[in-house]
Amino acid sequence: xxxxxxxxxxxxxxxxxxxxxxxxxxxxxxxxxxxxxxxxxxxxxxxxxxxxxxxxxxxxxxxxxxxxxxxxxxxxxxxxxxxxxxxxxxxxxxxxxxxxxxxxxxxxxxxxxxxxxxxxxxxxxxxxxxxxxxxxxxxxxxxx
Length: 144
What we know:
The protein is of the alpha+beta class.
């Protein structure tokens, strides 16, 4: 997974996106990202219009996956009709669960956060983002 996108344009702190680790730490981060990528089904990736999938250190610096998706933004309680490019940061946290942060790239506005996801729930949590209802997440797939 090579970096294809200029991460300086994304609305996350640079330390969560810049892979500075060396040796075993770097390999652990890469393997964690690979496990996340395997856990998310192709159908979910297609549903989100995922692109630019990249291994990153993540929010807690212990492994993560970054991808760009096209999601209908929910602003002021109104779902927009046109999809916006959003950065999805999937990070392993200190208690071995997964945190997901979604931010609109153009504005830096937070779309949603999902915390405490287990690896077998990752596809459902991400699929819940692909929704056009009155809530941020599709309740059929995820309850926050």
